[in-house]
Design brief:
153 residues, 5 helices, 3-stranded antiparallel beta sheet, elongated, binds zinc ion, alpha+beta
Length: 153
């Protein structure tokens, strides 16, 4: 990998340790040319198995763009979406499985999204959980109210 300072490709590892949660390894590297130091993070790739059986790499960008659609017209900033994407990925990694279904990913989105915005949550849940009737919406609203312990406008 290229040195981020001088762009030359030679560096050596001078220190290597697990992160606190144990899901990745942080390596301290020193460039052989300019001698400057930088850190790399090594972690396993998350794979998502789609309903069709096709496997693809987990993409935080994809999660964020599907949540962004559900957030249209809501007071949600790009920063909030980024944080949600990060939280979803962290939760999935913390669960410790390298291979996930689209169902696992959807579930991991619902939890933080319910805290972010109830309307966006309902939109996302209605697609993800394939709501077919008003009763499905009523049940989901009841769950959300119970979870928040407060009225949802
Ligand atoms: Zn360098």
């Amino acid at each position: 990998m290229y040195c981020p300072f001088c762009r030359l490709p030679d560096s050596r590892v001078i220190d290597s340790r697990s992160t606190d949660d144990g899901t990745s390894i942080r390596r301290r590297r020193q460039c052989a040319h300019c001698q400057r130091r930088f850190t790399t993070l090594e972690t396993y790739s998350l794979l998502v198995v789609k309903r069709s059986g096709v496997t693809e790499p987990f993409s935080r960008t994809k999660i964020v763009s599907s949540v962004r659609k559900a957030c249209q017209g809501r007071p949600i900033t790009e920063d909030m979406l980024d944080r949600l994407g990060q939280q979803v990925e962290e939760n999935l990694r913390a669960a410790g499985s390298a291979q996930l279904s689209t169902h696992d990913v959807g579930l991991a989105v619902l939890e933080p999204l319910s805290e972010l915005d109830p309307v966006a949550y309902m939109r996302f849940a209605s697609v993800y959980r394939a709501f077919e009737s008003l009763t499905d919406f009523e049940n989901a609203i009841a769950e959300l109210r119970a979870k928040c312990g407060q009225a949802v406008d």
